[in-house]
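Why does residue order matter? Because the sequence determines the fold. Keep that principle in mind as you read this record.
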Amino acid sequence: MAGVEAVEVVVAHRERATLRVGDVFLKIDGDQARTDVEVEAMGSVPLPTPEVLWRRPPVLALAAVPGTPLGRLGTPSTASPAAWSAAGAAVRSLHDLPLPPWPGRSLDRLTAELAAECDWLVAHDALPADLVRRNRAVAEAALRAWTPVFVHGDLQADHVFLVGDRVSGVIDWSEAGRGDALFDLAILTFGHENHLDDVVAGYGGDVDLEVIRAWWSLRSLVAIRWLSQHGFDPYAPGCEVDVLRAQM
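Structure:
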């Protein structure tokens, strides 16, 4: 087939897949509610987001955003402190928006999920019981009442793109909704603790660092089983298990 560019599998598991063909990303998701959220969120925020090229369920075609990722889990970030501060300022502009019409995860659901995943990790010898117990105690600081804001919901460092020190794109909005502002900050700095001060400086205001650390533990504990079962490695250097060990 002359003229057809190589297809790159960006991510693929039982729930969804993303392919790249040239400068076009094809997101395939059987849950169209997630895609609805992604499209509506991208059209609602004051941040640069991928252009929607077309949508033919279950496929959403998006244009690539310019720039390079702020960071990647398991690899030290080469982005400057100014770039991390710019990311913090971008998050603030998102959190200052009116609340979106769709909900986020409830406190009751998060509490139940943490309990279930901790029990599974211990029962299946996936992690030492003491590591689970001590991180669960840290994680519980995140399970408190919060004032909801418009959150990205999956604001990993590799979902934020830069040109120089400027945020040039924020991708993957399918988890957007109402949530805890500190959750977004925690996921942005997850595995990049050395850049937390830069992000907080850009974000501005009082930020409870204990709660951010609590979200690091909670995120790791609830993600390990899913990651392991979907072809990812939470035991890789700098990833979820190392984050839990660092919390000790």
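The chain has one domain: 65-247.
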